[in-house]
Design goal:
352 residues, alpha/beta, ten-stranded mixed beta sheet, 13 helices, globular
Length: 352
């Protein structure tokens, strides 16, 4: 999910999406969130203004900390048909300030991804997606992405050499990733486009924590727009031992704790539940992207004629009320970075 730290900057960058209707909706959402925290119960006004849609939960890589790649995901695999996307998106388009086209899996495995982006662009909704870059193989594909109207593209590159890259991006090809990024940069030049903003993401882990300065240089060499130095999410003590960096400042976890825990105390609130929602490839609605296997399913967006019935329904209200009462009692919240400092070690603009 988009970090709350990035949301204001994103909205400023794509200010053309701001309409009186959308501003009024944001005001209602903000008021309902504030009132919910005062009265400690779910109060509903407005609609989600950030929507995450999962094009697919298939992935071509075997990243050991990713449920989609490492085989831990138990839910059915599949791809969202374009017609289903159109249906769930257009129910919410008038209120959206941002559409995020990813969750689990590699979005570009869905061959209709750029058609989804084009539909959002026609509704003047900014779009972000994320990729491991392996499906950006040629000039035509890169030009299609740039021409689609995509606002921002996160490209994952967690190493500065082929050897360090494949320690986490198992099954990946370092040189293919570099080629794909360069194809995108060239396509932007050829089409004289300033978007999509290219956002290189470097997850800091034990095997690459000494490569941060080299990652900054690589970002400059590749001529991307932004570099994110992101902390790793782990699930077990074994994962922590294998992947967490030795320097605690590069981690979102408390190294002094008796068990694996995020830094800081979890507060009994969560902004995500008031301003955003997640619709998975099959229409299943999740409270957020940390619900990897939809253990907290809140409804079926394809089974309802109006998403409002889910957004204001009993399941969503019960989940928000549970968070307001005791967030720590909800298992997915105990490995969540929302409201906890340290998800990103740094987010930097890349100087030419």
């Amino acid at each position: 999910m988009l970090s709350i730290k990035l949301l204001p900057e994103t909205l400023v960058r794509y200010h053309r999406a701001i309409t009186p209707k959308r501003v009024w909706n944001v005001a209602k959402v903000a008021a309902s969130y504030a009132l919910s925290n005062v009265f400690r119960r779910d109060i509903r006004m407005g609609k989600p203004f950030v929507l995450m849609v999962e094009p697919t939960n298939f992935c071509n890589l075997k990243c050991p900390l990713c449920p989609s790649g490492n085989g831990d995901m138990t839910r059915t695999r599949g791809m969202m048909p374009y017609e289903h996307f159109k249906r769930v998106f257009e129910q919410q388009a008038d209120h959206l300030l941002l559409l995020m086209l990813w969750n689990q899996g590699e979005p570009f495995i869905n061959k209709r991804l750029t058609d989804m982006i084009r539909l959002a662009a026609r509704h003047n909704v900014p779009t972000l997606t994320s990729t491991n870059v392996h499906y950006i193989k040629d000039r035509e594909t890169a030009r299609d992405i740039v021409d689609s109207g995509l606002s921002e593209l996160v490209v994952s590159l967690d190493g500065v050499t082929p050897e360090s890259y494949v320690k986490y991006r198992v099954g990946g090809n370092f040189d293919r990733v570099l080629k794909g990024i360069r194809l995108l940069v060239q396509a932007k030049r050829d089409l004289q486009k300033s978007q999509p903003l290219l956002h290189l993401q470097f997850i800091i882990m034990k095997h690459n924590e000494g490569e941060i300065e080299a990652a900054r240089q690589l970002a400059r060499d590749l001529e991307v727009d932004r570099l994110s130095l992101k902390t790793a999410q782990v699930y077990t003590e074994s994962d922590a031992e294998s992947f967490l960096p030795s320097e605690e400042k590069f981690s979102r976890y408390d190294y002094d704790a008796d068990h694996l825990s995020t830094k800081g105390k979890i507060s009994n609130t969560c902004r995500l539940l008031w301003y955003s929602t997640v619709i998975n490839w099959d229409g299943a609605v999740s409270p957020c992207c940390f619900d990897k296997d939809v253990h907290y399913g809140l409804g079926d967006a394809l089974g309802e004629a109006d998403f409002d019935r889910i957004w204001t329904g009993e399941k969503y209200a019960a989940f928000r009320n549970a968070i307001l009462k005791d967030r720590a009692s909800v298992p997915i919240c105990n490995n969540c970075s929302e409201g906890v400092k340290g998800m990103f070690y740094d987010i930097e603009k890349v100087a030419p």
